[in-house]
Design goal:
It is built from 7 helices and 5 strands, in the order ααβαβαβαααββ. By secondary structure, it is mostly helical. The strands form 2 sheets. Strands 2-1-3 form a 3-stranded parallel β-sheet. Strand 4 and strand 5 form a beta hairpin. Helix 2 packs antiparallel against helix 6 and helix 2 packs across helix 7. The longest helix is centred in the N-terminal third of the chain and has 23 residues. The radius of gyration is 17 Å and the shape is elongated. The C terminus is likely disordered.
Length: 161
Amino acid sequence: MTHEDNNRQDRVFKAPLQVYERRLENIEELLAELVLLAEENAVLIVEGKRDIQALNRLGVKGHFEIATQRSLSNFCESIARLNEKVIILTDWDRRGNLLMLKMTKHFQSFGITPNTLLRERLMSIVQKEIKDVESLHTFVVKLRQATGHSTSEDGFVNEIR
């Protein structure tokens, strides 16, 4: 590790650089999965517009729905009528956890088992660094800077060492 690498790491994070390189790799894999699922017409359920913006900036485009704009029962029923693939990406704070649990029950009552595994994996990767989806873009940018990676115009991660 060069002196520049040490300085880059010290400015942003406290753990060894390898920890953050692995986190970045895991987040990039998860984002690639989200992109594929979105291309397969999965509905991505988030809590707000900023969540959509953050995911868009990370390359995830698709059919987003905001769960907090109407009654959960009606919301889940309308989505279940049109889609079989549902991904819940609520924040991992108390409110987001409660919302995810309630939506899961509603979707199951309509015969849909929503994907909450991606949310759980994301929570485990970011641990206590961030608590919501809208902070994900900023977190990924910091990880890329700290680990010596950047994003090219085509959206791929490039090493800049």
